[in-house]
Write a structure and sequence with these properties.
- The structure is a single chain.
- The chain is an alpha/beta fold.
- Strand 2 and strand 3 form a beta hairpin.
- The longest helix is centred in the C-terminal third of the chain and has 41 residues.
- Helix content is 36%, strand content 12%.
- It has a 6-stranded mixed sheet, sandwiched between helices.
- The protein has 8 helices and 6 strands, in the order ααβαββαβαβααβα.
- It is globular and about 55 Å long.
Length: 327
């Protein structure tokens, strides 16, 4: 960049733009009016302070499901291979630990590294006390989502699949599957699905994936389960966000990428939150912590909607039962 040229805020990682003119540093009024390319008014309000991190930490660590028969919320992470599902689990646990840890093993191969259903009970302070949230990981979606994959995913959401079940491409989950849960309780079911997509890979995903997401979302909605989405690796598509995570909601590139993710998933951007996972870092940072904790808080809001819906349905069923008993 030429000397005296301002930075290009929100520039994509694969290129930068050069400003045609530079505001005078000695003129505050000029600085106030100057708006670098890519910068837009902040479109989501977030406080990037230590107090905010502590408040979010306390909220996540003290969370308890509102439904009396559910002791822990179960959230299924679902997305393409290498989209960042396992990294998100490890990153959230890192925030709670105050240091970077690899709770869920992460792979780099083009095929799914996670082969079985794994539930990770998030542990918080003090003394690694179990929180009220469990993040569930399973095989990543391949470029062509088979009917078998659809069936297995829905079986997990319904609560039929035992912990540790190893998925195969040739054998569907049935009532004959070892450990199969025939009549799962609400505690054993999935209470929210979080789709995970990689911001840096959106343009490379096959068109068939969009149709698969649409069909999956329809079936999941029929089960009454709410869905949200995590847009990972936002630091790979925006240079300035990579430098400073707190700029994520001022970047036009991130906003536009979220819109593309919404199109892929068939959902409003109000359900989508950007995320920066810990990958090569050895220590946590304030702004990344806050972005991750805001994502968890977003998920828990929809968990609570599901639990409240089930509470209402149970109450209605009990009322109908009481009326039948009277007659």
């Amino acid at each position: 960049m030429n000397s005296g040229t301002g930075f290009s805020f929100g520039s994509p990682a694969f290129g930068t733009s050069v400003l045609a003119s530079t505001p005078s540093e000695s003129n505050p009024e000029t600085q106030k009016q100057f708006s670098p390319p890519g910068q837009i008014p902040q479109w989501r309000e977030v406080e990037w302070t230590e107090e905010q991190r502590e408040d979010l930490m306390a909220s996540v660590c003290s969370y308890s499901p509102s439904y009396e028969f559910v002791t822990q919320a179960r959230v299924l992470l679902l997305g393409p291979v290498a989209s960042g599902k396992s990294s998100f689990i490890s990153s959230v646990q890192s925030v709670l630990n105050g240091r970077v840890t690899n709770r869920a093993m992460v792979g780099t191969s083009p095929s799914s590294f996670t082969k079985k259903l794994q539930s990770f009970n998030l542990l918080g302070p003090p003394d690694d006390k179990p929180t009220g949230l469990v993040l569930c990981d399973m095989m990543g979606l391949e470029s062509e989502v088979s009917r078998l994959s659809f069936h297995d995913i829905l079986s997990v959401i319904k609560g039929h699949v035992p912990e540790g079940h190893k998925f195969t491409q040739h054998t569907a989950i049935t009532s004959e599957t070892p450990g199969y849960i025939k009549n799962p309780s609400l505690q054993e079911k999935i209470h929210c699905v979080a789709f995970v997509v990689d911001a840096s890979q959106l343009m490379t995903y096959p068109k068939s994936l969009s149709a698969a997401f649409a069909e999956l979302r329809e079936h999941i909605s029929d089960l009454g389960v709410h869905q949200v989405a995590l847009l990972t690796n936002v630091d790979k598509v925006c240079v300035e966000t990579a430098k400073d995570t707190s700029l994520v909601y001022k970047s036009s590139i991130i906003r536009d990428t979220m819109r593309r993710a919404g199109t892929l998933l068939g959902m409003s951007t109000s359900y989508i939150v950007p995320v920066k996972n810990y990958f090569s870092e050895l220590s946590t940072s304030l702004n990344t912590d806050i972005l991750l904790l805001k994502a968890v808080d977003h998920i828990l809001q929809y968990v609570e909607l599901y639990l409240k819906d089930n509470c209402v349905r149970k109450q209605e069923a009990n009322t109908v039962g009481e009326k039948k008993f009277l007659f």
